Amino acid sequence: MNAVAEVEQVAEGTTGSRTMKALVQEGRGSADVLHLREVPRPALTEGRVLVRMRAASVNALDWHTTHGGLILEIASKIMRSKDEPVRGVDLAGTVVAVGPGVTRFKPGDDVFGGAIATFAEYVRAREDRVILKPHDLSFEQAATIGVAGRTALQAVRDHAQVKPGQRVLVHGAGGGVGTFAVQIAKALGAQVTAVTGPRNVDITRSLGADEVIDYTREDFARRPQRYDAVIDVAATRSLGTMQRVLTPNGVNVQVGAAKSGGFIGIFARIIALMVRSRLLNQRLKFFVAQSTVDDLVYLKDLIAAGKLRPVIDRTYPLAEAREAVRYVGTGQARAKVVVTA
Ligand SMILES: NC(=O)c1ccc[n+]([C@@H]2O[C@H](COP(=O)([O-])OP(=O)(O)OC[C@H]3O[C@@H](n4cnc5c(N)ncnc54)[C@H](OP(=O)(O)O)[C@@H]3O)[C@@H](O)[C@H]2O)c1
To answer: Against a cut of 0.90, is the pTM above it?
Structure first.
């Protein structure tokens, strides 16, 4: 069924099926716990739109949530997060119905942004979490922007406060957040050094990095160069090493979670960060990206100005979304991985 016919049918309440396909998490441990199931469509509520998902990108978060672990379970209990069994937090698609109080969208609008449970044919999204999709941006491209684009923007522009002419090191430049961070730092006028693996050297160079260092061939920390800002997406090197490559007033923005030691490793690094910044007064920042539509608009404008380009490695149909999550979990994905429906 084409999108227009579907919008008309949903708006008139004449669609036969009230169910949809979704990638449901049943248990924890590996991508094997993800299964394509027939589940009820989300009900529309106040301030929400129902979106027919066309594309949704995979984030490290989906992998972490799938793999779980005791600490994640305790953290979600403390934060009282609702136990949502469907993975996916980014989407692009077509609005098929709007809930009470919705003023910004109507059925038929193509939108993109963030929502919960986006690895599904239909997604309920807050109207203040999505924006209109430009016609010249594909659904797949638009679906990559939400978490990775906003995280990179907030790291580079807000936390590092990068200024024209500054030297910026992006460590782990080839993944979802990294490829956005390189381009945003360039757009803000910085001189960018990208540190990445051999698979992503070409991509990061094509995105405008002034220098690219392959971490399997050279240790960036041995170079004499000092940086005004380090955007650490990879989090594979010690905080002390990252501190040593900064200028005296330089800032280290920690984006990524530690890659070794499981959740104990992640929390140990966060505690070390807090100790260094509070007790040793080092310019070290750790943040959790915020969902603001203003940032989506900013990123959309950068794309329209030709300063930002979403990069897609692989696209998987919804029926194979489990493999998409598995692939992102290998740490070998190049830029973004997208699921389509
Ligand atoms: N703070 C926040 O709010 C926030 C928001 C979103 C994501 N994150 C975190 O940011 C990280 C990246 O997320 P993502 O979605 O971009 O994931 P991704 O697309 O899977 O990227 C994985 C990253 O890990 C790097 N990496 C893996 N092995 C490495 C190694 N041996 N040395 C150096 N780099 C290595 C990759 O760099 P190369 O490809 O260049 O090798 C790439 O940057 C994750 O830890 C995620 O949890 C944090």
So the answer is: yes
Six-digit token pair at 86? 């469907």
CATH superfamily of 148-286: NAD(P)-binding Rossmann-like Domain (3.40.50.720)
φ and ψ of 24, to 5 deg? -105, 135
Mutate to test the pocket of ligand 1, among 61, 150, 151 (most ligand atoms within 8 A of CB): 151
pLDDT tens for each residue of 79-105: 555 678 999 999 999 999 999 999 999
Fold held by 3-145+310-340:
Quinone Oxidoreductase; Chain A, domain 1 (3.90.180)
The protein residue with its alpha carbon nearest to ligand 1, atom 26, reads 234
Tokens 């692989």 correspond to 314
According to DSSP, the β-strands at 191-196 and 167-171 are parallel
Q: Is 28 exposed, middle or buried (0-12, 13-18, 19+ CB in 10 A)?
A: middle
